[in-house]
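R.M. (postdoc): so does anyone remember the format we settled on? I'll just put the structure tokens first.
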């Protein structure tokens, strides 16, 4: 312990860091280390750098080793540290110079609290609240920062009983002091006493403002999952205008706390206002009914307008507040409760005064484009769908002003203002294009003329986008905008222009337009622009060539109909040159940091390799050497984990596809890679070691039968304990050992190395909850490739290790892995192995132990096996019951009938569906695996993270490939068993359930045994059934609660939607149609995609059939209440997959169009308008439209109803409209609008019916599940009592016999 300061100091020196960290790790397991470290951190006499290093080391222990089960920390040490952390953090808050150390200590508290609070740290909140002070702002800041770091985790958690237990515990202790401190701080800020200096940005007044920013954060934390009663009761105090705290703080602008407009950090008042608007946005999404109690939103809207209207806040320091204000505006528009605020002239004013000024390219953006291109690219690629769970002080969710303003426009387009917003934006777009065209050529390139076109393109992209994701780009577009035509007329010219002839930002705009709308282009169109993108890779502008690389990568990764759109043949001609251009750009960056900076280039190179495949074989050696050279440069200072992932994936992919086509190239890869890999391992470059082991395993796996000589020196390294210390290396090490075992298990056995492999399993992998899955994978490789006779000497100790772990720290995952391993051993078809090998080994440990293992672990786990393991489980189970002599002996044979019953029940269920054969070829699987990196790349990390190289993996071998049909296998095994021991088999089958061996037995048991067996479920079956029903009850109760919560919202939407229907009815009441002439009807059936809501979908389906049959109870009646005659060939369109599947069975010839994904949430007018637009454009001829939907009667009942909407011709010919002179467009527009109105009314009413029906259905299901639980409990208790009674009878009978 005396060397601790010196070791911490040495850990700051790159030359001695690794050795110092290893010594610190060794010290950390000693008793009292954590308390000693904390004392050192608090010792002000020590050098501050040593104390800071100690606080960082303590944080890393909390992050990576707090729950480590290999060399774990002492529980007494952890308890002592928990007791001392909060006082330590408060002590550090006294000295401003210790701010950084305090921050690290607070983060340690947060990390430990995430794991231990409240179960092991119940008094944490008491310590925090007791330390809050009305006079010490520094203490309060420390407490609030720590508290927020604990509570902020709630924002991303899924709702659960455990989560709400923790939240309620915190609220019960923290809420009262929180509200008191909020009121006190707000009062000080709004009405400061004369003694408080408000002119300084660093004094007490600023500290109170900083306190308020943290209080805003915690307010958000407290309300992110549910609305606490205390905050609900104080709603008016916070929100109501004009005296609510939030309302007052929105208008609070103290001059002393302002900052320079060019500062990148927001002022404290701006941070507070940003927090208020994010809270308001949260309430709009989760608690809209609270805001509707007063004019809160209207007042907030006025405040936002005052702040950001007409570009009133142009400074950089205001970016976060402006972005959040725009985000709040978007949320208000999307809520659909305040549509009247945006109608008419207001919409034009919003676009003119708010959207357009914030979309225009600013001088600061231009400076970032030139001086910090990577940051410009990062921000411009930001996905607008990102969650807003980020901190308040960062300005909502990190999006720029442009993106936030564009999102307001998208909200208008998606919330019923599509036509008006599109028309208004098109005026600004045309204005911008005209301004650009009128500018001189010099002004377009060298001056500012290009900004007009840049703004026009950005506005057009925003108004054209209805849905998008970062991976897929734009997924749905505005039907009123032709994105391809706009690209051809105004964007393509910039894309094909030579560098320097147009401004660089316009070329980036053209590439970004193509990137966004790539899914709207056909494959030939994309292939035609690829050469232009390749040409842009040679650009001298950093952003231009990087965007070109990003776009090429995204285009090549497009998947349609479940397959990659582009194959190697599509890029055969351009792939070598494209890859060379990319590598040249990477190589030309210079230093290691600059080379690794641009991971987009490396990712594009990786995508080209994975797409081109064998196309790259002719020049693969040069490509490999260039990749190795780049790896050598960046290994000097690894700095970008994404770049690392992509370069190793590129090497792996190149090796995989080149060697696959030309096996003779493997030695070249080995000769080029062994040298660099040896250096990486020797220098212990920990960021790269996990990749190296995966690639070594891949290379060795490409040798079919033997282990080449050059791989042999690796084995001693693999058995060194230090090699297994880095968690990220373990999967690669396991794969490498598996490759050695598959090709040289006999030599390893002769050299005594199998014992070393098993030592790794028993000492490093199985005891670890994190790595036990890799331990079982390595064990299965040993069992597969080592002869059972050779393995017998070790197998008993292996089983004892597994049972010891089962007893000491059992988890559900470990139980599954243990049962799977036993079935794996039973299923393997190897000489000397099999079920008896396993049973005898386990019974050697303790007599009759197998029966306990079988009953407690194997039998319960078999029905729970995932699909990929089901065939293995069934084959292993079958061999266990039919080939084991030990299972037929006393003590084990009693389990046979129950085990056999459960096995046969697996065949009856859908247990084996999809488990016996795979429809995916190896190539298809590979293709799918390679694309998974896109989802994993963002979490690729160093040290603790395992970054999988998808290209290095091969299809997993099927250990039971000798069985093609498990049912046929069972039949054959029973037949052989009957030949060996027919009498005993008949006796055992007679003891099974009659439904198993009787007339209704599965085909696998045809003729297997008599049908007079008992017909009573075993206790185990009852227990499993009881557990299943209880789980179902939990689900149905949860669904009922969710439906109950949604019902009020659905009813409000229905009430609003009915107004549209009433308006339609009033119009058509005066539009009587002529009696003569045909009336072609189009039927639209309104249902949804979701089930579990009773017979609500069948209701409209049956009503549709009755309408076509013109029966007396048809929903479509004349004024005399007689059924209307309907042409049997009338077209039908269906909204919702449920009614579609029902009607397609009997009326498939009538179906013309179906819609899905509508009404997943409360239907909006935009949904209805979209349906109406597609109906009109479908080409189906009709005179009127009949909507069949569910009519809401009450919360517990509904009925099918029909409403008829006249078409354009019907309106023109009606007597009511003939009395007026009208233009043709009027009746056409009215007919379209009326159809949308009627669809909207039907959708909202049907949605309310569905939610109500789901609540009732789940209520009934919960009650039925409760009844079943009572019944099953009674059966179980009776059966258990009968078993106990039988045992007592046996005992008494045996005693009396003595």
């Amino acid at each position: 312990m005396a060397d601790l300061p010196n070791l911490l100091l040495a850990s700051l020196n790159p030359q001695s860091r690794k050795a110092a960290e290893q010594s610190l790790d060794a010290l950390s397991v000693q008793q009292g280390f954590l308390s000693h470290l904390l004392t050192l951190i608090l010792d002000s006499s020590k050098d501050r750098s040593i104390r800071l290093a100690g606080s960082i080391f303590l944080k890393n222990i909390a992050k990576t080793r707090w729950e480590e089960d290999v060399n774990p920390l002492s529980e007494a040490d952890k308890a002592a540290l928990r007791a001392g952390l909060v006082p330590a953090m408060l002590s550090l808050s006294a000295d401003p110079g210790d701010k950084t150390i305090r921050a690290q200590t607070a983060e340690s508290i947060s990390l430990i609290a995430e794991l231990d609070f409240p179960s092991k740290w119940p008094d944490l909140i008491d310590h925090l609240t007791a330390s809050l002070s009305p006079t010490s702002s520094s203490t309060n800041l420390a407490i609030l920062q720590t508290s927020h770091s604990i509570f902020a985790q709630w924002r991303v958690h899924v709702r659960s009983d455990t989560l709400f237990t923790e939240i309620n515990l915190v609220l019960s202790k923290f809420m009262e002091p929180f509200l008191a401190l909020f009121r006190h701080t707000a009062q000080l800020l709004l009405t400061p006493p004369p003694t408080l200096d408000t002119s300084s940005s660093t004094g007490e007044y600023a500290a109170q403002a900083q306190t308020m920013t943290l209080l805003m954060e915690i307010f958000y934390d407290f309300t992110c999952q549910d609305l606490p009663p205390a905050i609900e009761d104080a709603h008016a105090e916070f929100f109501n205008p004009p005296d609510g705290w939030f309302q007052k703080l929105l208008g609070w602008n103290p001059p002393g706390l302002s900052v320079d407009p060019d500062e990148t950090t927001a002022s404290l008042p701006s941070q507070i206002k940003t927090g208020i608007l994010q809270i308001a946005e949260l309430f709009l999404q989760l608690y809209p009914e609270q805001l509707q109690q007063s004019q809160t939103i209207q007042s907030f809207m006025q405040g936002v307008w005052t702040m950001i209207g007409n570009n009133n806040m142009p400074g950089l320091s205001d970016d976060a507040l402006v972005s959040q204000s725009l985000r709040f505006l978007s949320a208000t528009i999307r809520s659909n409760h305040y549509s009247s605020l945006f109608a008419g002239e207001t919409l034009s004013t919003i676009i003119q005064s708010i959207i357009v000024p914030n979309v225009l390219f600013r001088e600061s953006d231009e400076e970032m484009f030139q001086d910090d291109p990577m940051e410009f690219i990062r921000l411009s690629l930001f996905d607008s769908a990102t969650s807003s769970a980020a901190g308040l002080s960062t300005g909502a969710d990190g999006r720029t002003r442009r993106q936030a303003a564009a999102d307001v426009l998208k909200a208008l387009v998606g919330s019923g203002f599509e036509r008006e917003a599109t028309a208004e934006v098109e005026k600004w777009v045309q204005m911008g294009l005209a301004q650009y065209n009128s500018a001189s050529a010099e002004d377009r390139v060298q001056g500012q003329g290009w900004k007009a076109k840049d703004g026009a393109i950005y506005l057009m992209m925003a108004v054209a986008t209805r849905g998008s994701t970062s991976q897929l780009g734009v997924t749905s577009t505005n039907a009123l905008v032709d994105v391809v035509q706009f690209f051809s007329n105004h964007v393509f010219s910039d894309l094909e222009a030579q560098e320097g002839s147009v401004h660089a930002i316009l070329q980036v705009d053209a590439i970004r337009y193509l990137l966004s709308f790539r899914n709207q282009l056909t494959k030939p169109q994309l292939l035609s622009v690829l050469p232009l993108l390749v040409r842009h890779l040679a650009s001298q502008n950093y952003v231009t060539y990087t965007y070109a690389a990003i776009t090429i990568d995204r285009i090549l990764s497009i998947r349609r109909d479940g397959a990659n759109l582009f194959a190697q043949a599509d890029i055969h001609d351009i792939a070598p040159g494209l890859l060379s251009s990319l590598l040249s750009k990477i190589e030309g960056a210079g230093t290691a940091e600059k080379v690794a900076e641009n991971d987009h280039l490396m990712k594009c190179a990786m995508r080209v390799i994975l797409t081109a495949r064998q196309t790259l074989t002719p020049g693969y050696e040069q490509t490999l050497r260039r990749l190795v050279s780049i790896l050598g440069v960046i290994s000097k200072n690894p700095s970008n984990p994404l770049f690392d992932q992509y370069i190793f994936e590129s090497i792996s992919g190149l090796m995989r596809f080149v060697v696959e086509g030309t096996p003779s190239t493997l030695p070249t890869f080995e000769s080029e890679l062994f040298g660099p890999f040896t250096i990486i391992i020797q220098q212990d470059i920990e960021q790269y070691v996990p990749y190296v082991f995966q690639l070594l395993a891949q290379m060795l796996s490409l040798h079919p039968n033997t282990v080449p000589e050059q791989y042999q020196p690796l084995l001693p390294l693999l058995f060194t304990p230090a090699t297994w210390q880095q968690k990220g290396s373990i999967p690669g090490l396991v794969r490498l050992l598996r490759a050695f075992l598959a090709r040289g298990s006999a030599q390893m056995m002769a050299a005594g190395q199998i014992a070393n492999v098993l030592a790794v399993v028993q000492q490093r992998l199985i005891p670890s909850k994190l790595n036990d899955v890799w331990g079982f994978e390595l064990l299965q490789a040993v069992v597969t490739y080592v002869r059972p006779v050779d393995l017998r000497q070790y197998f008993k100790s292996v089983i004892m290790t597994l049972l010891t772990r089962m007893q000491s720290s059992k988890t559900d995952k470990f139980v599954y892995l243990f049962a799977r391993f036993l079935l794996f051993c039973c299923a393997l078809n190897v000489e000397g192995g099999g079920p008896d090998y396993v049973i005898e080994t386990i019974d050697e440990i303790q007599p009759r132990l197998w029966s306990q293992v079988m009953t407690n672990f194997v039998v319960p786990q078999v029905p729970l096996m995932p699909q990929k393991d089901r065939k293995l489980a069934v084959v292993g189970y079958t061999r266990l019951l039919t080939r084991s002599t030990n299972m037929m002996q006393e003590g084990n044979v009693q389990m046979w009938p129950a085990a056999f019953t459960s096995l046969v029940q697996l065949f009856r269920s859908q247990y084996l569906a999809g488990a016996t054969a795979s429809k995916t070829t190896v190539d298809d699987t590979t293709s799918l695996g390679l694309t998974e990196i896109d989802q994993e790349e963002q979490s690729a990390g160093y040290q603790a993270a395992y970054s999988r190289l998808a290209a290095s993996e091969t299809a997993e071998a099927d250990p039971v490939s000798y069985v093609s049909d498990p049912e046929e296998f069972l039949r054959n095994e029973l037949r052989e068993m009957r030949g060996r021991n027919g009498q005993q088999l008949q006796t055992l089958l007679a003891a099974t359930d009659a439904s198993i061996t009787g007339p209704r037995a599965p085909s696998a048991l045809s003729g297997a045994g008599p049908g007079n067996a008992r017909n009573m479920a075993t206790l185990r079956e009852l227990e499993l059934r009881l557990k299943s029903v209880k789980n179902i009850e939990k689900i149905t109760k949860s669904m009922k609660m969710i439906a109950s919560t949604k019902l009020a919202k659905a009813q409000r939407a229905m009430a609003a939607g009915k107004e549209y229907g009433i308006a339609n009815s009033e119009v058509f009441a005066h539009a009587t149609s002529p009696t003569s002439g045909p009336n072609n009807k189009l039927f639209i059936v309104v249902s949804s995609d979701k089930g579990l809501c009773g017979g609500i979908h069948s209701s409209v389906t049956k009503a549709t059939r009755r309408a076509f049959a013109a029966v007396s109870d048809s929903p479509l009646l004349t004024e005399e209440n007689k059924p209307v005659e309907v042409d049997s060939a009338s077209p039908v369109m269906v909204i919702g997959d449920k009614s579609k599947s029902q009607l397609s069975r009997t009326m498939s010839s009538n179906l013309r169009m179906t819609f899905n994904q509508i009404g997943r949430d409360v239907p909006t007018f935009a949904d209805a308008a979209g349906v109406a637009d597609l109906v009109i454009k479908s080409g189906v001829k009709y005179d009127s439209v009949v909507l069949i939907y569910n009519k809401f009667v009450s919360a517990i009942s509904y009925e099918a109803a029909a409403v008829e909407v006249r078409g354009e011709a019907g309106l023109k010919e009606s007597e009511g409209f003939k009395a007026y002179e009208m233009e043709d467009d009027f009746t056409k527009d009215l007919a379209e609008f009326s159809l949308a109105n009627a669809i909207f009314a039907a959708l909202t009413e049907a949605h309310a019916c569905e939610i109500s029906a789901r609540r009732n259905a789940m209520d009934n299901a919960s009650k039925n599940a409760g009844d079943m639980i009572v019944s099953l409990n009674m059966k179980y208790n009776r059966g258990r009592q009968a078993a106990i009674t039988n045992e007592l009878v046996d005992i008494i009978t045996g005693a009396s016999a003595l």
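R.M.: ...and that's the designed sequence above, right after the tokens. Also worth knowing: The beta strands are 465-469, 473-477, 559-560, 563-564, 1081-1086, 1132-1135, 1151-1155, 1184-1194, 1197-1206. Residues 383-396, 917-944, 1007-1016 have pLDDT under 50 and may be disordered.
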